[in-house]
Amino acid sequence: MIARIPSAPRAERAASLGLALAVAALVALGIAWWRDGARTYRRPAWETSKFVPLAPATAAGGERWLVAVNLRCPHCQEHLRALARRISPRARPPALGVIIVDQPTRPARFDLGVSLAAGAWWDSAQVWRDTWGRRVYGETFRFDARGRLLSATPVGTVPDSSARRP
């Protein structure tokens, strides 16, 4: 005679429920990802009126490189410092600056360890995320003197100042 284990149907129901929850979570994530990808974002353009100045820009005119920095992210801050080291030997380096992103309150103090000729700006209105559709900390935006985007490069990449691409 084979003994029947009374908890087997309960275990099967729990496994089925767990599988159904996992599938539902994946479907919800897929829908959220699709909705975000289907949304139309504006091309980044540098407009100082959309950001709160935290440290003044000391360079006027010329090319401006702005790095999206989260103050709680050591990786993007290290990218900023490495970028500053890479461009400092240039005869005419671009003006380097930061956009402080995903910071709910105005930063009282911050020290990023580099000179910021293009200034430091707080994205209090979430322009970087909600208007431009950006998500990656450390991304570097190259803007010309009129605020037009020349390029956007991921963290770890040094933009090429000689290339004029959108």
By CATH reckoning, the class of the largest domain would read: Alpha Beta
Helix/sheet category = alpha/beta
- Give the helices and strands as they follow along the chain: HEEHEEHEE
Q: Assess the beta-strand content as a share of residues.
A: 15-25%
What distance lies between the first and last C-alpha atoms, to the nearest angstrom? 77 Å
As residue ranges, the low-confidence spans are 162-166
CATH superfamily of the largest domain: Glutaredoxin
Indicate the percent of residues in helices.
25-40%
Summarize model confidence as the mean pLDDT: 87
Taken from the alpha-carbon principal axes, the silhouette is elongated
Strand order of the largest sheet: 1-4-3-2-5-6
Number of separate domains: 2
Rounded to an integer in angstroms, the radius of gyration calculated over CA atoms is 23 Å
CATH architecture of the largest domain: 3-Layer(aba) Sandwich
- The total beta strand count reads 6
- Here the CATH topology of the largest domain equals Glutaredoxin
Q: Largest beta sheet, briefly?
A: 6 strands, mixed
Please tally the helical runs, counting DSSP H or I stretches of 4 or more residues. Answer: 3
